[in-house]
Each structure stands twice: as structure tokens, then as C-alpha cells.
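Reading group handout, session on sequence-to-structure problems. Before we discuss, look at one worked example. The prompt was deliberately terse, the way you'd type it at a terminal:

> structure Polar amino acid transport system substrate-binding protein

The input record follows.
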Amino acid sequence: MNAHTSFLRRALTVTLATALSLGSLAAFAQTLQKVKSAGELRIGVAPGDPWYYRDPVADKWTGLGVLLGEQVAKEMGVKMTPVETTWGNSVAALQSGQIDAMFVLDATEERKKALDFPANPLLWYAQGVLTKDGLVAKNWADLDKPEVRIGVALGTATDRDLTVRLPKAKIERFTNTDETVAAFMSGRVDAIGFYHPALVIAYSKIRKGKVVVPQPVVALSTSVGIRREADTAFRDQLNTIIGKLYTSGQTQALYAQYLKTKGVDPATVPGVMKETLGQ
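And the output record:
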């Protein structure tokens, strides 16, 4: 076999392999078509209130992520089906086709390497504090005092952020969120820091203190993780729908609806729209 023939065979082999690979991808990747054909949108659900919560009484999943999933499915003309997964396994579940979407999944640079995300934000959450009664926290500077004790979960993004943001305050670190909340309940700290939706859920359980998003607001957007595909029809339609839900105020309305099931007056806590955070 001469060099020229060998080269041609290798080139043909690569070309065929590439064609087969692209063909397989195209066959697997038509998410919107599969959703329409099956008549259902499968969303991943994993413990993490207020996004996902399994009601032990009704034995069903609820939460803002579920409510948003239902609305998106309705707009697509299909039903929403929850599929249990874990946060750590959500990327693999999407890639393998076990689920079609994972709501409230942050579009980090690392995840963008494996998944696709719509351009419009799903909602916003902010660095917040649950403060004891009487503690002023309109601005972060109000908390940056030696006499103010703030509890955080060790090693979290909040721990890192508040350590830098509040160098004069006394930062108390606890093993996990439950221990942090317990320290607040017992009066060992004057406030606890975390992203504000989780603090609202903590408040709904202990009925103590006030959830505040101090100025300047430190806000992050979250999104919907989906499979990366050559055909962007599913992503494009999803982007349009979540943009419509957000700008119309329906996303915030669904959040308020869910908080009422927790016995929380939504007018008394920060919402999930960037435009209103810190007001």
C-alpha cells in the first residue's frame, strides 16, 4: 500500500466517523421535537427549598422551580413531569437524556462547557442577611462593626464574600446551614448570611428576625440548564418563554404564591427580580 492510498483511506475513515457522529447527535438532540411528541417536559427536581420541596403530606414535589416548569410546559402545550435527581448529578442527567431541563441551575463557566443555557435570566437572588430585631442592615456598612456577630456556613461563597466585605465584623463560622440557623435562634449571633431565598425559608421555619438585602446589592442570576444541541429550537423557545414570564412579573408572582404556602407574606421579604432587590 503506497503512502497516497494510505492517506486516502485514513481520510475516508475520519470523514465517515465524523458523519456518523454528527448523525447520531442530530438524532439524539431534537429535544423540542421529543418534548412535543411525548407530550411532556421532564424537569429535574432535587431537594433545595424554595426551588424544590417534596411535600411529605401530599407526597408530591412543589417549589418555585416546579411552578416555573409547569408554566413553561403549559406555554409549550405539554405537561410537566418531575424527575428526581441530585444537584451534583444534574449535568449528567441532562447529557444522558434522563431529563429535558433543570430549572434554577446557575450558568457557571464550568457548566457552560457541558450544557447550554438560554440567554434570558430565569430569576435573580442576592447576598442577604437574616437579622435580629432592631439590628439595622440597610447598608453593608451598618454590619461592618466589631460588635456585630454574623454567622455563616464554613467555606461557602457567603463565607468568602462576607469575610472580605465585612472585615470589622465578627464572622462566626459553622459546619452547615442548619447549625448556622440554630446559632441565630439561640442568640449566639446577631445575624446570619446566605442568599436571600434560603434565608426566607429559614425565617418561615423559625419566625424570628427579618430578611434584608443590604446595599449595594450583590445579585446573581440563575438559569435553566439544557442539553447542548446543534438544533437550538428548544433553547430559543425556552429563552422566549422565561423572558416573557420574567418581564410580565409572573415569575415574581409564582414566587409570592409559593411563599404564601409557607405562611410568609411576600410583601415583607425581598423578591426574585433584580429591579426590586434592595428596595
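Points for discussion. First: The chain has ten helices and eleven strands. Second: The chain has two domains: 30-124+222-273, 126-212.
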